[in-house]
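Researcher: I'm preparing a figure for a lab meeting and need a structural model of a single chain. I don't have an experimental structure, so a prediction will have to do for now. The sequence is pasted below. Please return the structure as tokens so I can convert it later.
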Amino acid sequence: MDTRGRLTEAFDTWSAWADAQAGDDSRHAVLAEHLRAGRPFSHPAYAGHLVRPPHRAALLGLLAATLVDPEDRVDDESTTAALEDEIVAGLAAMFGPAGWHGQLTSGGDIAALEALRAAREAHPEVGIAHSADGYDAHERMCELLRVPAYSVSVDTAGRMDPDALVTVLRRERVGTVVVTAGTTTLGAVDPIADILPLCHEHGVRVHVDAGYGGFFTLLADAEELRGTPVARHLRAIADCDSVLVDPYRQGLHPSPCGVLLVRAGDGEEPGSVARRHPGVFDPDRARSGGPAAALWLTLRALPPTPDGLGELLVTGLRGARRWRDLIDAEPELMLYQEPELDILTFVPLTGEPHPRMSSVTAAGRHMLRAGTGGAEHPAHLSTSSVRVLDFVRRHPRAVADRNEAHILRGALLRPDAAAHVERVHERVTALAAAAPRRPRPAGPPPHPQPVESAV
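Model: Understood. Here is the structure written out token by token.
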């Protein structure tokens, strides 16, 4: 794609007006300086915020639609309404042959809110169950919608526990269960294929929050996922009642954008869920058509197929597997848990045979600050707060000397991520080795503090 030429064409339609409105150029320099201090998504060593750098087709589509008609809408018979229908059809085919309605929203949060609102309309006066480690906004959205919310416990890998779900379904009046296909903290995929029959037995709908991991459905038959429980659970999304995907995270979209797909009823033709069910799925009526144009053009460049967008996602999986092996063999670092998708979680060991949560938290914060502090080869990471019980369940030898711990989290999301794994790991290991060390006490190793007294 001739990006520069296409952008020039877009600017030519607008340059006369822009030149007439030109102001003080010094403001542009101030803005540029602020932006330089932002997240360097395009840097090879960036593994922090879990958003892929935007595809140039998305930037071109968004700019072109904004310049040509910034008031265009996707919820009427506008130009981009047709693009929205094409997007919905392409993403629906990614999950399976079943008929789906769908629509774009101004972000993943709005798509989630619309899904829960539809759940309330489908089963009024009953509650919504969600994973305790899923997206924390689900409970707040239920409060906003005045719907009872029931939290379901998770297993030692952060996935919804089917036995705990059965207990909730027997004890409470539940109309919809929200499962997660890839949490943004751990990349954990709920056992969707095991939860579906339980919900059907109790006459309960299943909504899938696949904002982060939904696009990995394209790789269910790839070597990296083939035959794994994750692949089985991703395939089961096709049998659920609704699903949310967020192209902003894995779809190389430049701004927040959600897509909500809802299973079509018998005899209904797939299409826009908002236009087919007005008043139920369309509180987000003010969204612009620019995101639709950007996503449509991106999916033309990288279609949602195994050999399209899937080829890009598989590089992230390979990079995660390679980095996992390096961390597992590194005495300075310890995996927090095994990765299921492309998110790695780990902690620095600080030389302690029985790592203290206070030590790994302090060392991790030091690494986070030092990783970008003028280093010639930076390492951009992020942290997640975990409960003491969750940490000790995974690592019984840990010393629970505080109520929570902060773990390090990373995912290499550039298309060429696999080529930079060794260099990023080398930098992270050096940061861990330079982190503050806790003096090793004389005598026998300390006994871990009872978890109950630390919570």
